[in-house]
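Help! Submission page says 'invalid entity' but I think these are all valid:
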Amino acid sequence: MQAVRWVLSHIIHRHYYYHYVFKKKEIVMKVQVTQERLAQAMLLVGRVATSRSALPVLANVLMKTVDKQLQITATNLDIAITHTLPCKITEEGALTVPARLLSDYVNSLPSGNIDLTTESNKLHLASGEYTSTINGVSPEEFPTLPSIGKNTPIEIEATELKTALQQTILTASSDETRPILTGAYIHTHEKQIYIAATDSYRLSQKELKTKPTADFALVVPATALSDLLRIIGDGSGPVTFRYDDTQVEFVFADTQLITRQIDGTFPAYRELIPEKSDVSFTISKPDFVNITKVASLFARESAGSITLEVGDDHVSITSVASQVGENTSKATAKITGEGSVTLNSRYLLDALNVIDSKEVTFRFSGKISPCVLSPVGSDDYIHIIMPLKS
Amino acid sequence: MQAVRWVLSHIIHRHYYYHYVFKKKEIVMKVQVTQERLAQAMLLVGRVATSRSALPVLANVLMKTVDKQLQITATNLDIAITHTLPCKITEEGALTVPARLLSDYVNSLPSGNIDLTTESNKLHLASGEYTSTINGVSPEEFPTLPSIGKNTPIEIEATELKTALQQTILTASSDETRPILTGAYIHTHEKQIYIAATDSYRLSQKELKTKPTADFALVVPATALSDLLRIIGDGSGPVTFRYDDTQVEFVFADTQLITRQIDGTFPAYRELIPEKSDVSFTISKPDFVNITKVASLFARESAGSITLEVGDDHVSITSVASQVGENTSKATAKITGEGSVTLNSRYLLDALNVIDSKEVTFRFSGKISPCVLSPVGSDDYIHIIMPLKS
């Protein structure tokens, strides 16, 4: 479905979006790069290249000299990632070559300089005693993505953005029948930036410390944000975020990611967040993780369904008696009210996994209202899980 | 094929091999073990349990009190592994329970004591605030493997046996149509113990330092030896090795592995090892690995086929020109003679991967005689690879 839709949009928008940069003539490129930098570039860029597209050239990366540097780009038409690396240029030029082979090959080479030379759509690579030729495809076949309008960018610290994305994109949907839910909703609300995502069974919302310079409301594919997380890695420094009517751009250090926005209006999710709940408990996160994990082992047959019972000074989790057996695990907690609720143990474990506080608060009202999970010590994150009918 | 054959043999030999240890009455077992020891036991034993057998009880482990200890056994009828661990016994007894669930559950529990109690084929586990019930199957359903005749055991140091197995079982065949080649040939020859294995494309032979106390020739399933490697892990100390006409037993610390022998005569492989070769080179192992790896990337379409060219003071490896491109990589070596040979790069990499010397010697004669690879500095290991017709 994904591929078909995008190839169609590629064709429809071809004249508007994609133009061919290179004229039909023999392009010779001669550059020298280090193995370390080329391997790093392929690590950042290569995974977006796809051999499962109707356009075979999308399995390739585009290598191109720009402004005395080497640019390496891959795109699957949803997302384009470009990494720029220093190089010594003897002749300017460009070529596309298979991403996986180039990546594997460069990773196998010893560190040191690699001479890259193109000739009749072939890339010659020479590094010490290693020489090889990789068959490529003309850069004319490669789509170039649109550039983003030059509006004022927002700078978000990489570590802040990384946490926010890790805590939200897990609740985006992977079901393409409702495309709007496959995105994260990056938007402003009362002079704050929020990131939210929901698959209609669960919902998460993070408030950023970074302040907005203008109001906006964008729905960005969660898969693209997952690639952005990979690009940020353990790095720090500013991520520059820019958008226009249809595209979003993130730039971190020497790497740029451009992705389309998802059309449509994100659900008015704030109405779903209960302000108060009848029952509430505060518990050590490791304890909560442990009793949930143990109970989930016995819930494999029942789609992970577990029941939380809250009362006295204990939270107990029970799995429904099944063919394999049954389980009850308890942990102490600070409790207000009493009651029980049944939910999917995997959703609860996913949520606990992205919360980094020592203690968490869990609250609910009866068996059908949304359950709310939040860290103790900060009120910038909220995670909601819908109960299962028991 | 495997499962069918073994279930048949199980039925045929039932009266001879398998007897039921437990009488039909309510068996109550009450023991206390530590989480750490039970988790370790399940790690060593659990993987042999199989849910893909026609006998459902083989997905379970047998827990049984024996001599004031707890014995945990799993078998797939080819192999049986028993681990013995200390416990406090209140009531002797036995039960079988699903291996995977028990293993996952015990791994999720916090460290400390676990009380195990059986009742009507259910296992109750209690550990602090965690209580659960796992549905089991009567121990009467579980096959007990034959005991090995009390012949004089051979003691082999774990680290020596580990290296020998790692260097040989990789060349055993996984093709069940010639069962004899799926085993490793553990045998004596001129007062030395050897382990050899061949899949008819390649062959390896290791000579042990440990001396035999009698002559023997056994073919042991490579899969069982692979389990033995897992049991040895990074441990040291003696491995006790005992055999009778049909079975082999290895005991390491508190763990026993019993496996059937493979019927038949192992090929007279010594005749295949060429005493001398026309061309020979000695090369740094990391260099040889690197140039082979790089060439293999270009050989994916041609089933990994690469050509070694030996001459002057260089070894060069080339991949055949193909759709993706072509490659040549060189490394310096001490060379006698000159020539070229084509072989499967994966076989060469597998062999280099299990040789732990800094330098290796590779020798061959023409394009169709066996190639011989051996470590420099010890003559207890030899690895043979048949060339590909080029």
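Support: the input was valid. A stray whitespace character was the problem, and the output above is from the cleaned input. Chain B is about 20% helix and 40% strand.
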